[in-house]
Amino acid sequence: MVQVHELPQALFLKDDDTTTHLVEILYNLCKLSRNIVLCRQELGQQIRFAWVAEFNAISTGLDGNEDLSPSGKPERLADIKRTAMGDAFDSSAIPELEELWCEKSPEALKCRVCGRGFETEALIRTFRLRKPGPDTASQIPSRVIKLPTEDIVIVDRHLRCLSGLRYLAISHVWDLTVSEVHEHGRSSPHKEEARDHILKLIGRINHGLVESLEGDIEVWHDYISVPQWEYGLKSSILMAIPHIFYSAHFTLVHMDDVGEQMVDDLRSKGDPERLVAGITGICNAKWFKRVWTSMEYIRSRTVRVMNRDGHIVEGVEDVFLGELLRLWDQEVERAGSVHTVEAMADLGDNLVPWSLGPLQTARELKKVDFGIAFALLSKRGCKSSRDFFHALLGIVNADLTGPLEDDPQKGMLQIASACLKAGDYSPLLMTPVLEHGDRRLDPVIIQKHGYNDILTFGLGHRTGSPLYHKESVFRPGVTTLKLERIGPVNFVWKAPKLDADTTFVLIIQAVLHFTGPVVDDFVKTVCTRLYNQSDEETSKLLSDPKRRDALQNILERWYDSAADQPWKPERQEEGDNITEILNLEAPLENMYAHGGTIHGCHAGVLVGASCRRCNRTFIFRAALFQRDTEIFNSVAYRIPGLGYHCTRPDGVGLLMKDGDIVGRLNWASPACDCHETEMVDVKLGNLPLPSPRDR
Which domain of life is it from (predicted)? Predict the structure, then answer.
């Protein structure tokens, strides 16, 4: 008998070179003892499956005239299988893919807990691997799939019957061959290859779990747990996936392209290039690219990570996100500029932590608003729009009352309307479909943003809910909201795209036309509604006599000379002085970063709206969705109570014209004490559809 310790060390490799090594080993050993199968059974979970799976792909012969080398051409695969594996080999022992993905009688399937069928509830199928022989588990299996060295023990239950069950759910990216076979159906010529990959993968994962976990645990993995070619069963399972991951003991994230070297690079000290290589290596992982995996992560309560070597990475419970962000921020601080580190990372070709989107925030919340959910998923890949919508429904705060629409645009409106009715007003604030030629469609800009679709929403998580939601009326096609009227827009102004300091000078000049040299009005307009400075900071500035006097002198000189001298060299110096007096250095920079992004990627768009009670016109920043001529004579409304991470308190509003949303307000806090509400008909705009960065 050939002993385990006598076999070549190459047999124990775990990477993708296994096939080559096995062929070479079998070339030398295929005519040895027929008891070699016994040695194979001693090699451990992973190698057993690797051998079975790869062995099916080996093509070689047995007589002396045939080439048995890895480059040779096969003639008699069955003969070499019988010679190498002895009488123990039986091709029927390896199930066909149909046995995993089809059901002879779907209507006959029964829950092992309550005994009922799955006509109206989703099939939740878990499994475990066991040695052949009597089963010591108390649960009677629904089915057992026999393999040469293991049995796959399957148990079918309803979601409500999972109570108390300790199972783990596996989040992973589908193999390309398996995906293609799934798409082409039973006629695919690569079914055996897909089956072998599935069995090998399940064995590798199980081996890693056995090494890392104490006690027996059942597994949910869509390769085994979802009858992929039974579309009636599958459709209800897809709707249940968010609940499957939420209910799991933990989620195992399988990052099959993240190796130990990447983690070592990430945790290296004193070598910035190596650190950045580790950061981008992990950020580029396939797992971050997909819609389904993102949704699964958000819904998971506890997470662990398995790398490509089949090892569970100790201490990582957030798919590295916290570590990535912390180390990225440290490197930015060391380098002195985020742009320097982004250049090191080759941003655009590579991903960095911020371009993965707010995954961690969404996971902490478990359910998020439609706008942030869409922005988080829209640049990630999936097979179809229906898959996207299923994942979207898994993380928004609304449920559909009817079947999901087949048409993608109708599906978007259907889900958005359900969210709106549930009190999520973010669909009203999303940037609609952009016209061809809009600079925001520049492929370079989109590529650099990665999977973080900040152009469509970008306001962050909700911090306050609409005050008058219960008084609003929701009907198919049109919604009537109770809003606070600001007034008609009679002033629309866009600064040229210049540097921050020059743009600020132009904005001062525009604002002075409406506020005059009145310090309080000027400061409240510029500091709060235009640059989002906190009310506390603004009050502190206004209470400082020296600052007030200095600002008053500048404003009076500027206002007195504005008509006959619209631009003087000293204007820039005075603008710099105002910036310093009002502590606006950071807010000015923000307008050329995310502050500008949430205002239509423009640092200088202002609108003036007139209050019909006090007859004053007030200036606000705006993100415009239409041409300036459409914005003029629109009406500005505030949505009392509604707030987001990047908006001002009571600062969220809409620009409305003939029921259409033509712009949004993010920092439009009340400028006067006049409060007038009215019922306003609002139509959802032309919402964008997902546009994956990578297919």
Answer: Eukaryota
Q: How confident is the model at residue 478 (pLDDT cuts 50, 70, 90)?
A: confident
Whole-number Å distance between alpha carbons of 305 and 313 = 6
Q: Report pTM.
A: 0.83
In three-state secondary structure terms, 464 is strand
10 and 38 co-located in one domain:
yes
Higher pLDDT: 93 or 575? It is 575
Q: Which two tokens stand for residue 35?
A: 């008891």
- For CA atoms 249, 199, 222, 176, the dihedral sign is positive
Contacts of 198 (CB under 8 A, 6+ apart): 97, 100, 178, 223, 224
Instruction: Give yes or no: residues 257 and 231 share one domain.
Output: no
Concatenated DSSP letters of 557-598: HHHHHTTT-S--THHHHHHHHHHHHTT-HHHHHHTTTHHHHT
Please give the Cα distance from 64 to 68 (Å, whole number).
9
69 and 155 housed in the same domain: no
Count of residues in the chain:
695
Q: Which of 73, 93, 113 is the last residue of a domain?
A: 93
321 touches 282 (CB < 8 A)? no
Determine whether 317 is exposed, middle or buried from the number of CB atoms within 10 Å of its CB (0-12, 13-18, 19+): middle
Q: SS3 for 69-120, per residue?
A: CCCCCCCCHHHHHHHHHHHHCCHHHCCCHHHHHCCCCHHHCCCCCCCCCCCC
473 and 610 housed in the same domain: yes
Task: Determine phi and psi for 452, rounding to 5 degrees.
Answer: -110, 95
Boundary-marking domain end, from 36, 59, 93? 93
* pLDDT exceeds 70 at position 72: no
Neighbours of 277 (CB within 10 A): 19
Beta strands at 643-644 and 605-610: parallel, antiparallel or unpaired: unpaired
Amino acid at 605: V
Q: Are 313 and 306 in contact (CB under 8 A)?
A: yes
Lookup: tokens for 487: 């007034």
C-beta of residue 551 within 8 angstroms of C-beta of residue 518: no
Residue 356's domain comprises 249-364
Domain membership of residue 412 (yes or no) is: no
Smallest Cα–Cα separation from 111: which of 67, 77, 142?
A: 142
Task: For residues 330 and 218, state if they share a domain.
Answer: no
The residues that bridge with 492 in the sheet, in sequence order, are: 607
Of 292, 195, 303, give the one whose Cα is nearest residue 237: 292
Structure tokens at 631: 């914005």
Instruction: Report the pLDDT averaged over residues 588-615.
Output: 93
The C-alpha atoms of residue 320 and residue 463 are separated, in whole angstroms, by 27
**pLDDT number for residue 135:** 64
Note the pLDDT tens digit of each residue in 168-207.
999 999 999 999 999 999 999 999 999 999 999 998 898 8
Gap between the Cα atoms of 166 and 216, Å rounded? 9
pLDDT above 70 (res 271): yes
> Quick one: 30 and 157 in the same domain?
no
User: What is the rounded average pLDDT for all residues in the chain?
Assistant: 85
Token pair, residue 147, equals 């393999």
DSSP state of 351: -
Q: Helices marked H in 336-435 — which ranges?
A: 338-345, 359-365, 370-377, 385-395, 408-421, 426-429
Which H or E run contains 681?
strand 677-682
Which residues are CB-contacts of 538 (< 8 A; sequence separation ≥ 6)?
523, 524, 527, 528
In this prediction, residues 277-295 reach a mean pLDDT of 97
Q: How many of the other CB atoms lie within 10 Å of CB of 32?
A: 14
What letter represents residue 613's amino acid? R
